[in-house]
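Hello Y.,

Per our agreement to keep a running log of every chain we model this quarter, I'm adding this entry. I've kept the format consistent with earlier entries: sequence first, then predicted structure.
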Amino acid sequence: MKPCLWQCVATASVLLLVGSGCVSAPDRGAGKNHAVVRSETIDLGGQSIVGMEMLKADGSPFAYALRADHGLVVCPHFDLDGLAQGGIAAARAMRWKFNGLRGELEAPIVAVNAPAAARGVTVGMKVGDALRLLMQAGAADAPPSPARCTP
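Predicted structure for the entry above:
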């Protein structure tokens, strides 16, 4: 997929997650919901991931997600169980001070949902390592076999 199209698809995915309630945004009061999503392509050893920051009206980040081909690494604002219910593999990173999307690659994973665990993502591994696992195709990604397609 072309990088520009990939960024658009990834950004739309996060916007859908925000709208579906899988991510919570700080309450800014009525008429003050001016969140902006900024995306960035990040090279991960020859593979591209898309990082997305959700920004408050003043430009400061309040949530982020790093999108690999087969899952997400997200900040604590995301509901891992809600993502799992949608079949999305996701892991949560915890950083006391946000150092930008590239800085998060060294942060530790502090929680994983069942789909991410099935892909080998574990608590304690670095975000970059988790994203590499989430870039790999798995058995769940295989197209249906002809036997399952025939009536």
